[in-house]
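Quick illustration, no need to memorize.
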Amino acid sequence: MRAALLPLLLLAACQPPAATYRTEGRVFGTVVAVSIHGESRERADVLSREVLREFDRLHHKYHAWQPSMLTSLNTAIERGEPFVADAEMVGLLQSATLLAERSDNLFNPAIGHLVRLWGFHAGQFAPRSPPPEQIRHWVDANPRLADLRYDGVTVTSTNKAVMIDLGGYAKGYALDRAALILRRAGVRAALVNVGGNVLAIGRPGDQPWMVGIQDPRGPGAVARIALHDNEAVGTSGDYQRYFMAQGKRRHHIIDPRTGYPVDLVASVTVIASGGADAGLRSDGNSKPLFIGGPEKWEAMAEKMGLREVLLIGASREVLTTPAMRARLVTKG
């Protein structure tokens, strides 16, 4: 028996290390990438294409301004009419409503009218300064996801000012859908990146996946994090969807209390782990901390049970929770 084991051990020792194959695309108005480790190139390509097709489906279903199921829902709300959605959309809206309520509505996907007013329902952004009275109109209208009512998959709203924009939530959902596809296919190690929101499956060999936290004011990363199985890292930042007007950076993350973009924060990064919705939580949870700003982010993180958070202020100051600080790799 011992003699029979020797050739097997030698054969294993001679096997080349498993490769990682990366496929990129562009969906949700950003770059997406699927890295699969330990599979053949052919199988990795097939699975990556399946994930990208799923991303494309979600992109067209939940697009905030091009014709989609979401824009149809918003039109029905504006008209005061019921809308027949489907179970997936209702589940996503209801989970977003729970997060909105936990965050005191700092996370508020119902303020699409304000996002559009600032010019972010477009592929390119031109400087603009919306009239203060228009901003005040939509703030005073107080749209909330809690205004929605459900009868099975039929959705109505008690507030016609609700316009839903899931740009701060759907990318996280896409991560979870990708993870489901890859795990069902038996993939043991993969990294999925949707515009800087990243989810890990397994590990590529003996080391964990390493991901960088983008420097919001320059190229490269301010730090790296070792990401373990079923962990997701999500970042909200002011450095991708923005324009400069009157010397101020105006970006797409709007404070629903004021109607103006937040100007004290450059980025917030959070880590979520466990369950079937780590991607969703990593994406959505960063928004209320960003809007809470340097003075209130810690209290909001504690309220929401978030242990691993990094905030970079507009003046480049870096603030972290102790648990996040312990995970940062700033050299090497």
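The CA atoms of residues 62 and 70 lie 5 Å apart.
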